[in-house]
Amino acid sequence: MKFEIEIWFGDLDAYGHVNNAVFARFLETARVKFFRERFGKVEPTFVLRRIEIDFISPMFLGETAVVEMGVGEIGNTSWEFVYTIREKKTGREVLRARTIQVWVDLKENKKIPIPDGVKKVLEAEKVSP
């Protein structure tokens, strides 16, 4: 999956570049977009267990982030999303990231197996490491 996000003034920190927390929001946007496009909605059926971000170069006001996301490893109750963000005009790599999501039973507050239909979609979106 691939989409663009324009950098606005509100995305910047005191140093004039995109704040690290804003990049975490871009990754969240990718996860929500993934589920909306494939299932028509996002229900609270998974939680974020881990987030790792390697910041490679800064982004600035007026630039456009190209966010690419795919599926990494898939387990019984959890899966990995992998991300790359590049600057649109130059192709400069800005960051690499990964998140681990866990499918949960919200009533019991415990992890449960990923439903078969969801797992099939995840497997179809799997990318090479």
What is the total number of structural domains? 1
Shape: elongated
Distance between the termini: 15 Å
Report the top-level CATH class. Answer: Alpha Beta
Q: From the alpha carbons, calculate the radius of gyration and give it in angstroms.
A: 16 Å
Strand and helix order: EHEEEEEH
Low-confidence stretches: none
β-strand amount: 35-45%
What's the number of helices?
2
Number of DSSP E strands: 6
Could you please say which CATH topology applies here?
A: Thiol Ester Dehydrase, Chain A
The quaternary state of the protein chains shown equals single chain
Q: Could you give a short account of the major beta sheet?
A: 6 strands, antiparallel
CATH superfamily: Hotdog Thioesterase
Fraction of helical residues: 10-25%
CATH architecture field? Roll
Protein name: 4-hydroxybenzoyl-CoA thioesterase
Pfam family, one: 4HBT_2
InterPro entries: 4-hydroxybenzoyl-CoA_TE (IPR050563), HotDog_dom_sf (IPR029069)
GO molecular function, one term: fatty acyl-CoA hydrolase activity
Structure description:
This protein has helices at 20-39, 116-124; strands spanning 2-6, 46-55, 64-74, 78-87, 93-105, 110-111. The chain is α+β, with helices and mostly antiparallel strands. The protein has a single domain (2-124), classed as Roll (Thiol Ester Dehydrase, Chain A), CATH 3.10.129.10. Strands 1, 2, 3, 4, 5 and 6 form a six-stranded antiparallel beta sheet that branches. A hairpin with a 3-residue loop joins strand 3 and strand 4 (78-87). The longest helix is centred in the first third of the chain and has 20 residues, at 20-39.
